[in-house]
Structure formats: structure tokens, C-alpha cells
Write a structure and sequence with these properties.
Elements (H helix, E strand, L loop, with lengths): L1 E3 L5 H11 L3 H4 L2 H4 L5 E8 L2 E11 L2 E9 L8 H12 L6 E7 L3 H9 L3 E10 L2 E9 L2
Parallel strand pairs: 4-5
Antiparallel strand pairs: 1-2, 2-3, 3-4, 5-7, 6-7
Length: 141
């Protein structure tokens, strides 16, 4: 089940986020994002357990995906795909541009985003200590 996150999800979101970045909870203040009026935090729940989430900033017709993580035990079941679809099409905003940044070696994520029509528009050399970053974008008419 897809739904907007609430305060009871914060601990689990931080737990999943730490898979991606051990400093996740200091980098992203989910509590503030739930209330700031321009962030979206969507979770995917299975039998009362949050198994994936996506968070993004939505400003007018532009969306920046900040983070997307699926529990390793639940991958390749289209959970990330459902989260992206919910964010960029079902949520009711008329988004003209969706952007994100991804590690250049993160093949699962790059494949996923390409499936949704994202294109690599810029490479940020050595953006991470151990990797380059791709800036990806998806434009709609
Ligand atoms: C990237 C991630 C979110 C994908 O989640 P997921 O729920 O497994 O993805 P989906 O099942 O929706 O996959 C959709 C498509 O993405 C691509 N994909 C997903 N995982 C892949 C993998 N391990 N290898 C290659 N392609 C992959 C495939 O094209 C897949 O379609 P297919 O299964 O029909 O081949 C998940 O692997 C994850 O949480 N990774 C760690 C966090 C991360 O890197 N987040 C993204 C950067 S913020």
C-alpha cells in the first residue's frame, strides 16, 4: 500500500535511509519534511511494515527526488517503481521537470530511472569521495 508518511514512520524511514547513507538522519530531517509544505515523503507498506520510501521536494511544477530506498528483502518487486509513479503521476501535481542525483556506479538506480524516462544530463566528476555523480532529469510537455 502506498501512502504519505506520518510521524510514526520516521524511525523506520531513518533505518531504511541508513542503508544508503549512515548519516541519513542528520542529512535529512524527515520530521520537518512532513510539515514544510513543499516536501513529499511517500512510503510503501506491506503487512504493517514500511518496506520502502521516497522523498522529494516539489516546488511549483518542478520536483527534485532526494532519496529512494527499498528494503533489500523486498527488492525487484516494483516497489521503487510504484513509489516513483505515485510521486510523479498520481499525486496530482502537473510536474514539468523531475530531477535527481545518483552515484555513477549505482546501476540498479540508473536503470530504474531510465525506465521512467530520466536522462543523464550532466556528470559531476568526483562528486562523491569514491564516485562521480550523474544529474538526471525527466521533462514533460
Ligand atoms: C534502486 C532501488 C530503489 C530499486 O528498488 P526496487 O524496488 O528493487 O526496484 P524495482 O523493482 O521497481 O525495479 C524497476 C527496474 O529498475 C531496474 N533495477 C532495479 N534493481 C536492479 C538491479 N539490481 N540491477 C539492475 N537493474 C535493476 C530494472 O530495470 C527494474 O526493472 P525489471 O525488474 O523489470 O528489470 C533499490 O535497489 C535500492 O533501494 N537501492 C539502494 C538505495 C538506492 O541506491 N537508491 C537510489 C539512489 S537515491
Amino acid at each position: 500500500m502506498l501512502r504519505e508518511a506520518n510521524i510514526y514512520d520516521i524511525a523506520r524511514i531513518n533505518e531504511l535511509g541508513s542503508i544508503l547513507n549512515e548519516n541519513f538522519s542528520s542529512l535529512y530531517n524527515i520530521n520537518e519534511m512532513l510539515d514544510d509544505g513543499f516536501s513529499k515523503v511517500i512510503v510503501y507498506e506491506k503487512k504493517d511494515l514500511v518496506v520502502g520510501f521516497i522523498c522529494a521536494t516539489v516546488l511549483y511544477d518542478t520536483c527534485d527526488i532526494l532519496c529512494l530506498v527499498v528494503d533489500p528483502l523486498y527488492r525487484r518487486k516494483l516497489i521503487a517503481s510504484n513509489l516513483i509513479t505515485y510521486l510523479i503521476t498520481d499525486i496530482g501535481e502537473d510536474l514539468k521537470l523531475v530531477t535527481l542525483e545518483v552515484r555513477a556506479h549505482n546501476i540498479p538506480a540508473i536503470n530504474l530511472y531510465k525506465k521512467f524516462g530520466f536522462e543523464i544530463i550532466h556528470k559531476r566528476e568526483k562528486y562523491y569521495k569514491d564516485d562521480d555523480a550523474y544529474l538526471m532529469a525527466r521533462k514533460s510537455e
